[in-house]
């Protein structure tokens, strides 16, 4: 449990979309600093084999080199018919450039002719606070659309239809994504822990 009330924390990401999503989610509760705010412009390599390992690796990198308590998120799109792929390899699914259009193209062709479109986004947030590590998970189930639709969001959003909706994450209002998404669910657990000391999932050492 945090020793004192947290009102400011670093989010170890270079992804501007993630940063603005999270700032919107925690608006009025906690101030979020990005990596550029602390003078970190390093490309942090994601060499882990799981989302948990990669999230921890990013958070530890910033803590060790910059000295800030912080949290990092690693997200994967897990497609049932593909045995959970692309999963931890989601960002470089179609190659090292990480081009979202190419990633979606590859996924849509991998699912061509397959009726089972079930999938989930899974986000793991790793927090390093007072020398302790904590993990928080958020999962949203849904389906993979037959073609890309919508212009908002980022990454795989144009082909992911969250359960209970007909539109993709790139078609719904951002306020909807920020309420129901994998990252919103993981963030809710993180915020609860930071503000109230409640821990829902932790693999802390
Ligand atoms: P950082 O590591 O700097 O946080 P990143 O963009 O590399 O940013 P991830 O490794 O977590 O983030 O992302 C893995 C892939 O999943 C990548 O292709 C993202 O575009 C995609 N992704 C992550 N969150 C997403 C979301 O909310 N909606 C759609 N795609 C998402």
Order of helices and strands: EHEHEEHEEEHH
Number of strands: 7
Ligand list: inosine 5'-triphosphate
Note poorly predicted spans. 200-205
The fraction of residues assigned to DSSP E strands is: 15-25%
**Principal-axes shape call:** globular
* Category by helix and strand content: alpha/beta
| Number of H- or I-type helical stretches | 5
Instruction: Indicate the percent of residues in helices.
Output: 25-40%
Can you put this structure into words, describing what you see?
With about 200 residues, the chain is an alpha/beta fold. It has five helices and seven strands, in the order βαβαββαβββαα. Strands 1, 2, 3, 4, 5, 6 and 7 form a seven-stranded mixed β-sheet that branches. Strand 5 (about 120-130) and strand 6 (about 130-145) form a beta hairpin. The protein binds inosine 5'-triphosphate. Inosine 5'-triphosphate binds near residues 74, 156 and 181. Inosine 5'-triphosphate (ITT) binds next to strand 3 and helix 3.
């Amino acid at each position: 449990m945090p020793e004192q009330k947290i009102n400011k924390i670093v989010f170890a990401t270079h992804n501007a979309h993630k940063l603005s999503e999270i700032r919107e989610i925690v608006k009025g509760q906690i101030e979020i600093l990005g990596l550029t705010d602390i003078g970190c412009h390093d490309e942090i390599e994601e060499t882990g084999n799981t989302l948990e390992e990669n999230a921890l690796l990013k958070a530890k990198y910033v803590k060790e080199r910059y000295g800030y308590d912080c949290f990092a998120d690693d997200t994967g799109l897990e497609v049932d018919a593909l045995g959970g792929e692309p999963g931890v390899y989601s960002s470089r699914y179609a190659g090292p450039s990480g081009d979202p259009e190419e990633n979606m193209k590859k996924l849509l062709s991998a699912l061509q002719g397959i009726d089972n479109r079930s999938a989930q986004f899974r986000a793991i947030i790793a927090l390093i606070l007072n020398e302790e590590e904590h993990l928080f998970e958020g999962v949203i189930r849904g389906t993979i659309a037959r073609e890309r639709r919508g212009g908002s969001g980022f990454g795989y959003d144009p082909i992911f239809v969250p359960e209970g909706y007909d539109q993709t994450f790139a078609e719904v209002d951002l306020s909807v994504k920020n309420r129901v998404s994998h990252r919103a669910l993981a963030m809710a657990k993180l915020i609860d822990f930071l503000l109230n000391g409640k821990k829902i999932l932790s693999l802390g050492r």
